[in-house]
Amino acid sequence: MVTSTPNKIVDFEANRETESTAQGLRDKGRDVLEKGRDYVDATVSAAQENPWKAAAIGAGVVAAVAATAYGASKLVQSTGKDDAEPAIDPDAVPEAINAGT
After folding, report:
1. Quick one: which of 2, 65, 69, 86 could link to 73 by a disulfide (CB 3.0–4.6 Å)?
2. Is-contact 33 42, C-beta < 8 A?
3. pLDDT averaged over the chain?
């Protein structure tokens, strides 16, 4: 779009390019949001159909995260530095995980 003012002619070509880029990004954002909603819906449906499997997977994820944190704290302890403190308190780790060590 070209507009004239009393002193000059103004061309909004740069604005059109910016607007088209912004619109493209909005469209991509909507697509990603729709896909994310689809994935969440599928996950919720699967969890409702198989609640025991969903609970087992959740427990496995929690155990893996706790074990990773515990392992990281052991690595920090094994550096040999006197001032190194564990990333987590080993006494705070659930008993089920401590039983394996």
Report:
1. 86
2. no
3. 76
